[in-house]
Each structure stands twice: as structure tokens, then as C-alpha cells.
Amino acid sequence: MAHEYVPEVAIDREGNEHLVQGWQDDYFGGKMGFWLFMFTEVMMFSAMFLTLSYYYTLHPQDYTEASAHLNRLLGGFNTVILLISAWTMGLGLLKMRSGDVSGAKKFILATMFIAALFLVVKGFEWHEEYEHGIFLGHGHLIEEGYPLGKKLFYGMYFTMTGLHGFHVLIGIGLMIWLLKRINAGKVTPEHHILHFNIALYWDLVHLIWVFVFPYFYMIGAAHGH
Amino acid sequence: MKLQGFDTNAAPFVDIQDFTLDLHWILAGLLFLSVIGPMLYFTWKYRADKVKDEEISDVTHNTPLEIAWTVIPTAILMVFFYYGYEGMKQVRSIPPESKSFVVKVIGSKWKWEYEYPPNKAGFVHKIGGGYIEPVVDKNGKVIKEGSLGVSALYVPENTNIILKMTAPLNDVIHSYYVPAFRMKEDVVPGRTTKQWFNAKRGTYDVECAEYCGKAHSFMYSRIVVLPKEEFEKWFESKAYTPKGEIKADGAYLFKQKGCVFCHGNDGKGKKGYGQDLTVRMSKAQVLHVIEHGQHQLKYPLGPMPAGTAKGADAEAIAEWIASGAKGTPPQAFATACAGCHGADAKGNGGMAPNLTAFDETLVKHVMEHGKSGIIGNMPYFFTTDKENAAIAKYLQSL
Amino acid sequence: MSAKSYLEETHTAFGHPKSKILQWLLTIDHKRIGIMYAVVMFFFFFVAVGIGMTMRAELWEPGKQLVDPHTFNQLFTLHGVIMIFIFIVPGIPAIFGNIIMPLMIGAKDVSFPRLNWANFWLYVIGCIVALFSLWGENGFADTGWTFYAPYSLTTSTNVIPVLVAAFLLGMSSILTGLNFLVTIHRLRAPGMDFFKMPLFVWGIYATGWIQLLATPVVGITLILAMLEKYFGIGIFDPAKGGDPVLFEHLFWIYSHPAVYLMILPAFGVMSEIIPTFSRKEIFGYRTVALSSAAIAGIGYLVWGHHLFTSGMSDLAKTIFSFLTFFVAVPTGIKFYDWVATMYKAKIVLRAPMVWALGTMITFVIGGLTGVTITMIGGDIHLQDTYYSVAHFHYAILGGVVFLMFAGMHYWFPIITGKMYNEKNAIRAFALIFVGFNLLWFPMFIAGYYGMPRRYFDYLPEFAIYHKIAFVGGVMLVIGLLWMFYNLIQGWRKGEPSGPNPWNATTLEWHLPMAPAPLDNHTKVPYVDFRPYEYKHGEPVVKFDYETMRRID
After folding, report:
1. How far apart are CA B163 and CA B107, in angstroms?
2. What ranges in C59-158 are assigned the alpha helix state H?
């Protein structure tokens, strides 16, 4: 029950040959599929940004106050390292394309390290907020009389940074898988669609953060302590 | 079959709404025919056994036709849009509050409540409510009273009425729907939505049109439009509802909440849930009572002992009562029953239950104490004497 | 040339299992996956039909017949969840999009066959999760399939598993759409440009975009609702500062395009059947193709018409109403094109054609009654009444599902290699058609007179409509059983059909044998012809099935 790709041609009435695209080894198709998947991710986060913005119009004061309370230092640090990781990911892909497999592996490892660091910092941040009695289903967020706008803001903050963190975690998993595939010789400079798509995914992950950061951390910066 | 007052042009925008719909259905019917007419005709005209292969045309374009079937339907759709918009404008053009009578409507699971503006004496009418199931413990003891509720909005005729509607924050979305007025608007917790009308005299059903849970389909109310003087008289008083209103409407009370649930909309009962109320007692019930006695009804003569008649005698009595106590009673009745229930079985002046009809006393007893019968327990309901009388009158009319 | 059909051998996701069952469970062949979808879907379809009939029986008379109000609410929720999320949204794309679409464009399979396989199992997991809550402590959700907040947030029933299930099913639907989009872009046979594609492929293509761009919105909305229920963030709960109307918006941003997602592939089926059984090229190919794209595009902008009575501003209502009318225009054009195709044609009234023509009647009624509730004034009266219930059953059952049945009769030879009993197929159609109209037409009238939907009990004035509907329902169910029995018997004992019994023109009918061989066409043909070319009732394009070169 083999399913290998047999290159095939279609012949028109004049006898000219036309190459047939098979589903196997379709680099462009693979790329396109992943781009389409990115669209759905964008739609998903847009819906959340929409929700967030709608409530900003209802509770602007609560939003800025709640935002002022967030730790801009840790958030900013995370933004910077995530941008750097996008850069290392891109370099890795360039290395792969130019045939330097071991160089590519180093950059993937570096990206993984930064991604893990991002999660650790995020963990500290969440812990700090937990200590202040702000966490989903805990402390102020289930307290009667705590301003509704703040509850919404922090609720969305944990939801969205949580979902983003989940994407980072998946990214790390994907990169581990990518390394295994490279080591197994399945991903090569000639056949690197997997690497390309994971780099694309990582771009989306940092891109989302680029929107999350100002929206949550910066709207209250003027009131910061 | 239509709801009461559906065709009476009860509110000012019924005209435009019905005109819009009628116009729409006529034009939509034409559009339907413009597709289905040719479709059926072609199916018949060009059926396979009538067409020679070389007669088949290969036409695939006809610009004038294509333009026609794009432009004409679009134009018709714009007519629909216009009238839909007109309808909305009339329904949603809420008159200024200064020139209207504003009533607050609160929709909650599962009742409609109305709060009126203060009258001259400063008294605020608050009416409404729905069926509330009584809470009964294991031994049948009532822990929390239930209520049959009185849910109607009383308004004067030919007056602009504005409904300011809301739901409690911890409740869910409802929708205040008056089919006879062709209007509805959702009632959203945390928001205040508005509707208005200006209605003719009559009684109109109100339904909840946004799904809200278990008793969604029991969340009825009605709008009672009264002559101005009659309304004023009530509004300036402290009376709970306008006079005479409840008495006239036992059928409504019966339908409104509690009763229909077990006894059915027509009172004929539901197998296993409630007895047939068009018959005072069934043969089986009479036999059961004769055998076991009856101590639940608290009539002046006290509990009825068990075993007042036996065998063929009991059968004959039961037969006679179940058939409506018409004609001469059997011999056994005179000896065993007439002493308390009277020779005509009509209850001996209220000393014992009337066996021929549901009288007021009986309804009151049962409503107040509940009752366990051969089917199961009927719970306790909170009702006023007026309501009991109305229900009793209704039951007798069944 | 392979002499074995896809039913005899297959490609698997991994390994080379000997067991027939494992070969089915692990298959990545698009045709087998389509059949497995069909089996699961129709199982659930009949469950939901049974639930529907239980509700009809309950509504036979006012008052309680069979179940209590709470159970009734769970029943209509279960009916909606199954019919929408499990049956009709995957519906035609998952069955015929899988089986037929690659054949139509001359591809060997979809672009990502393993993803296709994984999607099917994701779908099955979704179904299981949805039903899981049936046995939970608090019972199945009683929210209605729309999960409106705040009711869904406050009910004690198991809403969360249903939300998870809807999310998983949505995920499966997104990835299926993605797979088809890439397939259509990448794997068309050489020479086949977009305007040489069969119209069913156009329908699947437009649907793919809706699946891809609209489904994630409802996915995340359901996730937010779950978080809300667990943690009480307050996103949709008015008691915590949220706005329940926002949920309605987010929900319908997906769920309205979703109805076009259901109907567009169905229109595609119609566009295949009408020219084939008229023995004539379709009228206005480009307008039919582009109107699908137009419907998909406009469909994104009209969700607000579900909220005409939700307290939205009058201006927003006006805009949404205005835009909604423009969905009707391309839909109308399609119908006129189909009817024009039948002009001076040779109408062969075989079962697929009878189904298609019957569907025209029911769908035009469904479509035009949709226009009624697009008029804001009309909708203020008819919103949430039986009128809308009748409207969407006419459009979805009388449109999408009927065309799915039409497609089942049409493509039956490719899938099974056999032919069903024609007479019984037509009789079953007649019974279903009459039962269907008896079941739902009275609801238009009841709705206009003010019978609200989702009512366990009703005022006695409406009894007559419910009684007629029940009788129609019984006829419909008997017809359905008859139809499926006939098709199953056809597969088991039918006459061999040959690869092109209808004299059809599109590529899926140019296979060397029926049922289809595992690797589809012997060779990929070069497509330099339009999809429905007929001359004097005979297909213009003929192939030598050995070399797949044109011999006409």
C-alpha cells in the first residue's frame, strides 16, 4: 500500500506535456496551508481584542488604574527577549536555507531557551500578582464590590496572556520536534517546510505579544508607580 | 386559531406591520412563482420523451434577461427594506415620556412584574408575579408558600404607554412579546430597554419570547386595557387590582400557571398528573373515598369514615356520582351518604363537600391544604378568596 | 491500470494493517474518510430526528405529554447541538467535499491527507465529548444551541462539555476548510483554471473561507464563556459588569456566516445535478460561481439581523437589515440561472433531479420567508417565533439536507458502483416532501399568530398547528427510513452502475471503473474544456480511460 509520489505529466491535445502537482512534496501548498492557519489564529485573538476594547469604552478609568498596577519592567523585558527570539528564529531559517544545518540547530536552541525564559519571567509576574490577591477565581477577582472594570481587565489579562503563554509552550514543543526531525534527517536544506512553518508560527506568537503588551501594560503607564 | 384580540388592530402600528407583511407575502409569492412557475413548466414541456436530442438548445447567456432578474428582485427587496424600516420607525418611535404613562416592567425567572408611577396619594402600585411552586418537605408539610400570582398590566385606553423594561442583574434575558400589538423587545439584565403602545380596550396575551429556562413557556402575562375612568378609579385607590377583573377571568387564572400544568389546558386532566376536572369525581375516585374515608377537606362535619358502603352498594353510588348525580339516586346513597352530603348530593348547605360540582368552598379547601388522591399529591397554592371563586366558577362551566 | 477499487485497498496513516477494520480506521484515502464521516453523521442525524419527534409528540397537545419542561429544554438543546455542530456544519463538505471534490479537480487526494484523517478523529472526539455530559450528574445542557449568556453561565447543567465539544468540532471544521482551500489552489489538474472548475468545487471553496475565518471567532467566544463560568471574569455576565449582548454579537459573527457555510456546498450540488439531467450546459456559469463568493462575502456583514429585538440601536438595525437584503440577490440569481438551464433542455427526471427540483420549491420558500424577517418591522413581530423556526427548517432541511440527499442519489454509483431502486427512491422522496411541508408550513402560520419558539407548553389556540405538524413529522420520518433502506439495499444488492450512468460531464465521472479506484483517475487529464459541455444531449468531452487523453 505504498503511497509514494510518482511524478506525472498531463498531455493536452497538441501533445504538450504539463507537470502535475501531487499532494506529496508540495512546498508551496504546505506554506499556504500554514498561512491560512495563521489567519484563524489572528481571527481568534482579534475577537478577544474586540471584547477587551469594547469594555474599555465602558470602564476606561478602571482599565487605566488596573493597567498601572501591572509590572511594566518584567513585561517590557519579556517584550524585548521575545523580539530577540524572533530574530534568532529567523536567522536559524536563513542558516537552514543556506545549508548550514548545525548553525540552524544552534539558533533553534537559542530560540527555545529564550522562549523558556519568557515563560519563567511570566511565571514570576503571575506569582507577584497572585501575592497581591489578583488571580483568576482568587482574591480580589471574586471579591464583592471590587470595581467591575478591574475585574474584567485582569480577567482578560490572565485569559489573553495565558493563551499567549500556551502558544509559547506549544512553540517550544514544536521546536523540540523540529530538532528531532532535523537530527533524523527528515528536515534538510532542500526540504525545510517544517522549519519554515514553525518560524512562521513563532512570528505570529511574537506579533500577538506586540499587541498584547501595549494594550495591557501601557494604557495605564502614565498612572504608574 | 388566533389569540384574543389578534385581529382587532389593537395598537397603532399593527396597521403598518400587517400591511408590510401582506405586501411582502404577495410580492414574495410572485417571486416564488417566477422561479417555480417556469421550473414546473420546463419540467413538463421538455420532458425527456418529448425532446429530440438535436432540439436541445445550447444557450448559456442572455444579457437582458440576466439584468432583469438581477434588477427587478433587487428593486422588490428595496421595497421590502423600505416598509420594514417604516414598520420599525413606527414601533420604535417612542413618544416623549412627559406625554405618556410610564410603567416599569421587570422580567425575571419566570414572571412579569409591573411598577406604576406614584398616584396622587403617593401610593405606588406594584403588581404582577407568576406561578411559584410551593416548597414541600418529605412529609408533605409546606415549607415555603407557593403562589398562583396575578400577572396583568392594567392600562387606560387611548393613552401612550411606555414600558421601561429591565431584568434583575442576576437573572437572564427575557423578551416581552405582545402578538396582538406585533411588538417585542428583549429584556436584558443590566440594561433598560423600552417599548410603547397605545391600545384599544381589550385583553391581550403577553408571552416571553427569549428562552429563559424551565418555565419559559409559562411566563405569560397579559395587558388589560380599561376605559379611562375605570382605570383612574383603580389607579387612585390602593386596591391590588381593578375591581371585578379577577372574578371575570377564572379561565385565565386556570390557564395562567398552576392548574394547566397537571389538569391540562382544557381541564380534562393529564394521565398520571392531574384529575379530569370536567367531571366532579370519577368512579374510581368515589370508590377510593368510600373505601378509605376522607379527612383532608376540613368541612364542618369533619372527617368522613372509611367503609360507609360496600360491594354492589358502593359500585352503584360511585356509578351515580360519576355520571354527574343526575336522576334518582340509588337506594344505597340515601342510607350511606345523604346524611352528610344531602339527598341531592349537593353538600347539605356546605357542611360536607358537594358531590355534583366544584363549589367555592371545595376549591378553597384544596388550594389551601393541597390534597392527596388516588393519583398523587396536589400541592398547596396561595390564592385569594376572589381567585378561588373565579376558579370554581370556571370549573363549573367546564 | 489498477483493477481494485478504494473499497478493496487503501492507504493508511501509518503501518500496513492486515485487519479490514484497522484499514478503515487508519485510512487516509479521501473517499473512505468521506464515508466514515457519513456513517457517524447519519447516526447522529437519526438520533436528532428521534429527539425532534419526541418534542413534536410532547407538543401534540397543550400541557404535559411525555417529558417535563426541564427535559424538554435539554431535548431541544441536544437536537440543535447535534443537528448544527455535528450534522449540518460538517455536512456536505465533510462527505462530498471529501469524496467528490478531489475527483472533480483531477487530484489524487486532498493536500494534507494525514491532517484529513486526524480531523475525522478530532470530529469523533468532539461528538463523544458532546454526548459525555448526558451521563453527568447535572444532565445535558439546557441552554439551546445558541448558549446565550447569561443563561448559559447560570444554569446548573453541564454546559462546559458541550462548549468544549463545539470548540473541538469547530477546530475540525477549520482544518477541513483549510485542507480544501489548499487542495483547490494547488491540486487542480493542469489547465483547469478557476473558471473551469465544476460549480460544486466553487461552493466548497467559498465555504472553506468561511470555515477558516468565522469559526475561530465562535471558538474563542465559547472559550471565554467557559472561563467566565469557571472563574467569573464577568465578560458576559451582567452581574459582574459584562454585557450579555456582546455574547450574542460574537456568537452570530460566526454563526450567521455558518448558515452560508451550510448552504453554499449544497448550491454546488444543485449546480451539478441541474445541467446533468437537463443534458445542457449550465446557464451563466460565471454568475453562478461568483454569486457563491458574493454570498460568502456579504454573509460576514449581516450577523446583526439576529439582534433586531436585542436592544441594538435603530441605526445599526437599519444597516444590518439593508445589507442582509443583498444576500438574497446573488441567491436569486442562482435560482434563475438554474431554471434558465432547463429552458429548451431535455429534462431527465431521475431521482437526483427530482430531489433537486423538489428542493427548489422548499428552498425558495425558505429563502423568501427569510426575507420576511429581514424586514425589521416584520422581525420585531416574528423574531423568536415559530415563523423563524419554520424558516430555518425550510432553508436548512429543505435546502441543505435535501440537496445532500440529492447528492447521495447522484454520486451513489461512484461511491458504491451500484444503482438503487429508482421507483422506491422517488416514492420515498414524495413521502418526505409532503411530510416536510405538513410539518413546517403550519408553523409559519402559528408563528405569525404569535407562537414563540422553545415552548414546552402553549396556549390552546395554537393546538391545531402542532397537531398537523406532528402528522407531517411522522410521514417525514417514515420517508427518511424508507430512503435510507432503499440506498442500503441498493449498495448491497443493486445492479452494477458503470462509471458514468448519468451521461455526466465533470471529471469525477471519467473514472475507469465504479466504485472509484484507489488512486482515482488512471492518469491526470489535461483540462481545456468547460465543466458542463453538452452537444445535442451528449457530453462533448470524451476520454480514453487508459491514457486520459481526449478522443473527441
Report:
1. 12
2. 69-81, 91-92, 98-99, 101-104, 113-132, 151-154
What are the residues facing B53 on neighbouring strands?
none
Share of chain A above pLDDT 90, in %: 54
The domain total for chain B is 3
What does the pLDDT look like over A168-215, one tens digit per residue?
A: 999 999 999 999 999 998 888 888 899 999 999 999 999 999 999 998
Put simply, whether B16 touches C (Cβ < 8 Å) is: yes
In the 8-state DSSP scheme, what is residue A139?
E
Residue that is written with C-alpha cell 430555518 in the block: C392
Considering the domain architecture, whether residues B176 and B282 belong to the same structural domain is answered as: no
**Spans of all domains in chain A:** 24-222
Reading the block at residue C476, the C-alpha cell is 417525514
Nearest to B46 by CA among C283, C348, C533: C348
CB proximity C495 to B under 8 Å: no
Q: Please tell me whether residues B155 and B140 are part of one structural domain.
A: yes
For residue B2, is it within any domain? Answer: no
- Calculate how close chain A gets to C474, using CA atoms only, in Å: 42
Last residue of a domain, one of B213, B234, B255: B255
The CATH number of residue C261's host domain is 1.20.210.10
Percentage of chain B lying above the pLDDT 90 cut: 36
Q: Quick check: A141 and C231 CB within 8 A?
A: yes
Q: Which long-range contacts (CB under 8 A, 24 or more apart) does C389-393 make?
A: C389/C440, C389/C443, C389/C447, C389/C453, C390/C440, C390/C441, C390/C443, C390/C444, C390/C447, C391/C366, C391/C444, C392/C259, C392/C366, C393/C366, C393/C439, C393/C440, C393/C443
A32 touches chain C (CB under 8 A): yes
Q: Do C238 and B190 touch (CB under 8 A)?
A: yes
In CATH, the number for domain A24-222 is 1.20.120.80
Query: Are residues B149 and B38 both part of a single domain?
Result: no
Residues 507-546 of C with CB under 8 A from A: 523-526, 528
Contact call for C450 and B46, based on CB within 8 A: no
Q: What range defines the domain where residue B353 resides?
A: 263-397
For residues C549 and C240, the model is more confident at C549
Single residue among B204, B228, B255 that ends a domain in this structure: B255
Structural domain harbouring C179: 3-550
Chain B segment 228-267 residues within 8 A of C by beta carbon are: 255, 260-266
Instruction: Indicate the residue of A19, A47, A136 with minimum beta-carbon distance to C220.
Output: A47
CATH of the domain at B36: 1.10.287.90
Chain C residue numbers with beta carbons less than 8 Å from the beta carbon of B216 are: 69, 73, 454-456
pLDDT band at B246 (very low <50, low <70, confident <90, very high): very low
What is the number of domains present in chain C? 1
Residue C1: predicted pLDDT: 43
> What residues in B contact C448, CB-CB < 8 Å?
21
Whether B190 and C336 lie within 8 Å, measured CB to CB: no
pLDDT (tens digit per residue) in C227-277: 888 887 778 888 877 888 988 998 998 889 989 999 999 999 999 999 999
Q: Is A58 on the interface with C (CB under 8 A)?
A: yes
Torsion angles phi and psi, residue B156, rounded to 5: -80, 155
Q: What is the pLDDT at residue A113?
A: 95
